[in-house]
Amino acid sequence: MKAMTYERFGDSSELSLTEQPLPKVGPGEVLVKVHAAGINPVDWKAMSGGLDPMIETQFPAIPGWDVAGTVAAKGIDSPGFEEGDEVIAYARKDWIHGGTFAEYVSVPLRALARKPHNLTWEQAAGLPLAGLTAYQVLTRSDLEEGSTVLIHGASGGVGSMGVQIAVAAGARVIGTASAKNHDYLRQLGAEPVEYGEGLVDRVRELAPDGVDIVADFVGGVLDVTLEVLAEGGTHASIADPEVEKQGGAWMWVVPDAEDLAELGELVERGRLTVRVDSVFPLDRLPQAFEKSQEGRTVGKIVLQVSGD
Fold first, then answer.
1. How many domains does the chain divide into?
2. Residues 270 and 129: beta-carbon distance below 8 Å
3. Same domain flag for 104 and 118
4. Residue limits of the Enoyl reductase (ER) domain (predicted)?
5. 227-233: long-range contacts at Cβ-Cβ below 8 A with a sequence spacing of 24 or more?
6. Same-domain status, 83 and 102
7. Which of 41, 133, 178, 286 could, after both became Cys, cross-link 12 (CB 3.0–4.6 A)?
8. d(Cα 300, Cα 39) in Å, to the nearest integer?
9. What is the per-residue pLDDT across 72-129, written as a single tens digit (0 to 9) for each?
10. Nearest 5°: phi and psi at 49?
11. Are residues 170 and 226 in the same domain?
12. What is the pTM of this model?
């Protein structure tokens, strides 16, 4: 099969389109023919060696953890799915090697859910990691109807899904973003505020008594979080370990088929959608990584692998 691989840690110049053997499919796994694969900043951070202290890498490594595709084969004792089923997954494994930026990937059932029928392949590929990140941060932060939620980085891939998930739960959402993205946040149901100097005052104008939940998807905003958090409120970050010293949760998204199925139900009910910023063919992964590294996308960057 064709796959994008790298033989050593480095930047996008290390990536090559190569021929690799089909993945083995073990018990409790399926082989997925990849139609599209979502790109996340963690993919190029892993390629640079940024995750090496915590996750083993086996070279040549195929990057990528998000996938949308069809079941091509089943391993032993893999109930619930059949060949031809349309599926999605946050397919992170215990080491970095056989990722989703390839024509095929093996996926454990614990990470697999059915593709929402009302998403394109490209939209579906952008849902798992970002959607699960937002969902797990918010649900573990005691999200409920009537909560006031502040989302840092609300117009990005994770933040925009967090806005929609919180709104669907009946929460009031305040979201930080640059002014050019404020109309987009209003469309999602959030009250936008511009980040930068004076952010605390702008949030306090909207929520004088503070906010119940802060979800930080950008990092570097802990001081703001603590100043606007209401007494007894909760806060979590995916980007700043220092939150743990201040009573918050530093979180890392976990593959979870049930959570992903919940997201799929929100999609099919029309409460959650995925905005695709741009689509690249498989062999243009280096350019897709470079666009991701610019940090100015609104929505998801996606690789189109197969048009079947």
1. 2
2. no
3. yes
4. 10-303
5. 227/200, 228/150, 228/200, 228/203, 228/204, 230/148
6. yes
7. 286
8. 7
9. 999 999 999 999 999 999 999 999 999 999 999 999 999 999 999 999 999 999 999 9
10. 95, 5
11. yes
12. 0.94
